[in-house]
Write a structure and sequence with these properties.
CATH class of the largest domain: Alpha Beta
CATH topology of the largest domain: Quinone Oxidoreductase, Chain A, domain 1
Helix content: 25-40%
Number of helices: 10
CATH architecture of the largest domain: Alpha-Beta Complex
Order of helices and strands: EEEHEEEEEHEHEHEHEHEHEHHEHE
Oligomer: single chain
Number of domains: 2
Strand content: 25-35%
Length: 324
Amino acid sequence: MVKAIRYERTGGPEVMQWVDVEVGEPGPGEVRIAQRAVGLNYIDVYFRTGLYPQPLPAGLGMEAAGEVTAVGAGVTHLKNGDRVAYVARPPGAYCEARVLPAAALVKLPDAVSFDDAASAMLQGLTAQYLLRQTYRVQPGQTILIHAAAGGVGLFVCQWAKALGATVIGTVGSDEKAELVKAHGCDHAIVYTRENFTERVKEITGGAGVPVVYDSIGKDTYKGSLDCLAPLGYFVSFGNASGPLPPIESSEFSNRGSLFFTRPTLFSYMGQPGALEAMAAELFDVLSSGKVKTNIRQRYALKDVGEAHRDLEARKTTGSTILIP
């Protein structure tokens, strides 16, 4: 038996329970891994609260890193002792060990630690598809990223800067403004006292930006559209303040034929060969030092309730990992 977090009903952090679970032997095409570090992400809150429904009882957590301890029939690219990481569905990474399809795992290069991998798979691969696929940022462009001090935000700030872009980020405090400036953000807007739309117009000389990456949702939706230049991209990839209001097409046509997209990591990863290619690019920028993980908080996995409370209260910055 190993320990894992399970929940039987949706609700606050108190619904998560630290329980014994059975982990069997891997079947054909599967491997068992002993987990060394687990990532914490806001999507975990969405599942726990029921915003993203799943059959209950269920586990939580989308990403982790560890070592292969058993290999099922037909698995040829992995062996016992291999260092691996994953971001996978269904949720269930909040555990000491688990069995997963071998196809969901990627090998870790020596230069990437378990902790870094656990903090980077979901957030780093999200930054990869946002910057390199959803809207391919070019040198000399100016972009806007909301929640710049969060896990994905700090990846985007660093990576976009490495690509030669000028980065505008919104944050909730002066402390967070200093943090993002130290990680590639050229202009930090403290939204609690500044109108971010007006500041973006000021920074861009009234031109607006070609892309807004928005994980906040309801509170920033209209303002984000007003930041865009004609033919700009509104990329909505989260709902931290609540879901977007009903979408009216005139909001986009009246502002200059804007584009709207609601991408998901698993849509991009689901293409043949995509996971390996995306992970290779992520590991390359991590190994080169162009992008660094920003693990700012560590909690014991059994104390994940405290971690969720801090995450929802916006007390965390950068990435958070859970140690089994």
